[in-house]
Design goal:
By secondary structure, this protein is of the alpha/beta class. The protein is built from 10 helices and 16 strands. Strand 5 and strand 6 form a beta hairpin. Helix 7 runs parallel beside helix 9.
């Protein structure tokens, strides 16, 4: 069966041959020029903000990097998704294309986590691994800088709740990056590129079976899942939180095990009786609220080792420590569900901010002090073969 690709913008899958092209609307060698126009497909799938003043699209062999427009005879390198008509990244299909789904319950801190994670990968982790994270389109570069990074790091302001997909059914606005890493081989160093697409879902999109099926079909094409769970939403953990920790209300919030159950049911909807083989990083947020309960020798009291590869031994120690905490947090059903339905999952404990925000939803005066936020992504990248591992497991 021929390998299919998934669009990093709409998450629909297609065969490489089905990739379409868009005319660049420049004057061709024969003196013809296609007029620019709106793209109705792009309008309907991704919203009208990106569909104006574009060349016409046409079918050609999408396995090739270029094609000749049948109307103006001009050669174009613009390849587009055959489903949503978004322009595909350069080298799409010739470098790894990994879709990362970031899911979790309402108020679990997904948007803050995603912002801090990407900031860390572009800075501290990038330096340690010799890696670079590049926004692959103008919308990603503008939105991440303005809507995410500036708000959190410059303005010290937290985010409002993420808009639900049900309020905007056909628009998907993922952040798409190229993760580039220098790999040493027998022939010397060579670059390795991985396209990463992050989609931050609203917690309400996982509040019922119907909303999961309607609004998050992209999960079925995800290469990896980061599932963010808030232990403060678990009755067994709330009582042990550091005094003064703001606790989420119980009204309108869904139990973490229910969110995991709905995601699992969606992934099993294809009818397979086998375990799900998509790697799932199960991330418990706001760990700073529980540091006072941890033994000094706990791996959750230390930062991940600073090195240019993913430390498997350290990750497994964290995994087992979180599993131990789950027993104290009445989270055994989460562990049993994962054991029985997934072939690859790993537990993580993180703190995006390092300290409670202020009552008016601002960053504490001590600033952002992230803890282990990159571990889940580095584990997924190591499972994909995109970053090297140290140790086995």
């Amino acid at each position: 069966m021929a390998r299919r690709h998934a669009c990093p913008y709409c998450y629909e899958s297609f065969a490489p041959r089905e990739i379409r092209f868009r005319c660049n609307s420049r004057l061709s060698r024969t003196g013809k020029q296609c007029a620019r126009r709106r793209d109705q497909v792009l309008d309907e799938r991704m919203g009208p903000r990106r569909s104006h003043d574009l060349g016409p699209d046409f079918a050609a062999d999408g396995r090739k990097p270029t094609a000749v427009c049948p109307d103006c005879d001009g050669e174009t390198t613009y390849r587009i998704c055959p489903v949503c008509h978004s322009e595909l990244p350069v080298q799409f299909g010739r470098v790894d294309n990994r879709l990362i789904a970031m899911v979790g319950a309402k108020a679990s801190g997904k948007t803050v986590y995603m912002t801090v994670l990407l900031h860390e990968v572009r800075n501290r982790i990038g330096e340690a691994f010799g890696a670079a994270l590049l926004g692959l389109d103008d919308a990603t570069m503008r939105r991440y800088s303005t809507d995410y990074e500036d708000r959190l790091y410059r303005d010290n302001q937290l985010f409002p709740g993420t808009q639900t997909a049900s309020t905007n059914l056909n628009r998907v606005d993922p952040l798409v990056f190229r993760f580039s890493l220098r790999r040493r081989t027998l022939l010397g160093e060579r670059p390795q590129h991985t396209v990463l697409s992050f989609f931050d879902t609203a917690g309400e999109d996982f509040s019922s079976k119907e909303s999961v099926e309607l609004n998050t079909r992209y999960l079925t094409n995800a290469d990896g899942i980061i599932l963010l769970l808030d232990p403060l939403q678990m009755p067994g953990a709330r009582d042990g939180a550091l005094p003064g920790t703001p606790l989420p209300g119980t009204t309108g919030l869904d139990a973490p095990v229910n969110v995991l159950s709905r995601v699992t049911n969606l992934l099993l909807a294809g009818g397979s009786t086998q375990k799900i083989d998509v790697p799932v990083a199960v991330v418990f947020s706001k760990l700073d609220a529980f540091w006072h309960l941890l033994d000094g020798a706990s791996p959750l009291r230390d930062h991940a080792p600073a090195r240019d590869r993913f430390d498997v031994g350290d990750s497994l120690s964290v995994h087992e420590e979180v599993r131990r905490l789950l027993k104290d947090w009445d989270g055994v059903p989460i562990d049993q569900l994962l054991e029985n339905h997934y072939t690859r999952f790993r537990y993580f404990g993180v703190s995006s901010l390092g300290r409670n925000p202020t009552p008016d939803a601002r960053i504490a005066a001590t600033g952002i002090q992230p803890y282990r936020v990159a571990d889940p992504l580095l584990w997924l990248l190591s499972e994909f073969g995109s970053v090297p591992k140290a140790g086995r497991g």
